[in-house]
Automatic annotation (TrEMBL):
CDD domains: CobW-like
Stated name of the protein: CobW/HypB/UreG, nucleotide-binding domain-containing protein
One Pfam match: cobW
Occurrences of domain CobW/HypB/UreG nucleotide-binding (ranges): 7-181
Amino acid sequence: MTKATIPITVFTGFLGAGKTTVILSLLPKLPKDYKVVLLKNEYGDVEVDSKLAKESSLTAVSEILNGCMCCVLVGQMQNALFEIRDQYHPDRIIIECSGSAFPATLAFQIREMELNTGGDFKLDSIITVVDAENFAGYEDTSPTAKMQASYTDIILINKWESVSDRQLDTVLDHLHTLNDLTPKLRCDGRNGVDPNLIFGIESKLFLDKNVHNQDPSHIEEVETLTLYRGSAASQGHKHDDDHVHADQGLKHHDNHVHAHEHNGILGNRSPDSHQSIPLETLKESLSELSKESVWRVKGFVRVQGANVETFILNWAFGRYDLTQTDPSALTEDSSVRLTAMGERGELRRAIGSLCKTLELSIL
């Protein structure tokens, strides 16, 4: 019996472009018995998207945190792919890169795995998601964003409904300059895109290893901080060296390095961790964040509205969603745990007002 090759679709795109939303939108359009496993990589150590994804029809979800698997964590990516193959035998693996990742190294690694395993894996396509609202801004400051748009099989233009025709033309002009031949498809809001348009591409990218030398040092572009309210000792409670992701059984070794000292906005003063955040206070604080210096804020927060409820917060470039989740996402002695990502050297200053208003410390 001939073994089936597992196609791998790699999603890249700058922070907040909407990669996870696009990926999850594909699932309802696939056959009921089609098995998809998501391997997600993100900076920070808060497993936000796994919480969102476990409500979907994904067969399994795994997150590799605190580093980028297109460079320093390539070995972890390889091990995770082997585990996915052996445990789930999926019809497809989707890899969602960190927002600042250029996937050349990752693509070469997949091609090497294809050779070394006799064809167990194949690189099907690299898809870049572009945020039409903010691309013109971050393209100017991020060489990685330019690389992502230049080396890809398909560009998906997201959030284009929120910009004027003139702004959209500007984005398209920039994209055509970077990559004239690659197809550019508009996402249909939260309905995303037809999977038939992006699956089965049989990518020819990165066959030439000389392209690898163009990988930028993208890690220097993004600074990541953990914000919390509650006991500092509880801030690593969910991150054992070998743990289950998204309650779906897939394990791998995490590359967590927990700081033993924290520079808190409150110094040594610990706020009442059981006191939830008033909803209006949270909304006002988020509205004041600068999207020029702060690009993503994601994590968990206990909110006081009509009732005290725990939410997943997902903020990107001025937009945010609050999705109710299980209270166990936070420990009893913690009411906020967030990861903030933004411009290196400016992020700490830019989140100062948020930390002061919500009484957050920085780990």
